[in-house]
Design brief:
MORN repeat-containing protein 2 isoform X3; repeat; MORN_repeat_protein; MORN; 11 strands; eleven-stranded antiparallel beta sheet
Length: 134
C-alpha cells in the first residue's frame, strides 16, 4: 500500500466520533489518518496529536471527560514512551510508559504535592524515595 494522496479532512464516523486533520489515500483507495489531527469520541474523549497507519502514533494529548489527561508519546493507540498522566484528583505520574502501564523510571506526585521517585513496574513501585527540594 503506497500512499499517493495527502489531504485534510473533517469526518464524522457512524458511531458519532469526529476526526479533523491530515490523512492519506493509499494506492488501493483506503483513506487512513496520517499526520496531525484531532479526534473527539462521542463520549467526550479527545486526542490531539500525531497519527500514523490510522492510529495514535507519535506525540499527542488524550483528554478524558473525567479530567484525566495524558500528554506524551503514543504507539499503536497506547501510551508508550515518555509521558505524563494527570489523574482527576490532581495526582500525577511523569516517566516512562509501556503499553499503557507505568514502566521504568518515573515520578509520582501525590495529593499533598509530595514527589516520589523510583522504578515503576506494572502495578508495583517498590522502593520509591521522597524527592526533597532544598
Amino acid at each position: 500500500m503506497s500512499e499517493i494522496t495527502s489531504l485534510k479532512i473533517s469526518y464524522i464516523f457512524p458511531n458519532g466520533d469526529k476526526y479533523e486533520g491530515e490523512c492519506c489515500r493509499t494506492s488501493d483507495g483506503v483513506v487512513m489518518r496520517k499526520g496531525s489531527g484531532t479526534q473527539t469520541s462521542a463520549s467526550g474523549v479527545t486526542y490531539t496529536g500525531e497519527w500514523d497507519n490510522d492510529k495514535m502514533n507519535g506525540r499527542g494529548t488524550l483528554t478524558h471527560p473525567s479530567g484525566a489527561i495524558y500528554s506524551g508519546l503514543f504507539r499503536d493507540n497506547m501510551y508508550h514512551g515518555k509521558g505524563t498522566y494527570r489523574f482527576p484528583d490532581g495526582t500525577e505520574y511523569t516517566g516512562t510508559f509501556n503499553n499503557n502501564r507505568f514502566e521504568g523510571e518515573g515520578e509520582f506526585t501525590d495529593s499533598q504535592g509530595l514527589v516520589w521517585t523510583g522504578m515503576f513496574r506494572n502495578k508495583a513501585a517498590l522502593g520509591l524515595k521522597l524527592k526533597v527540594n532544598m
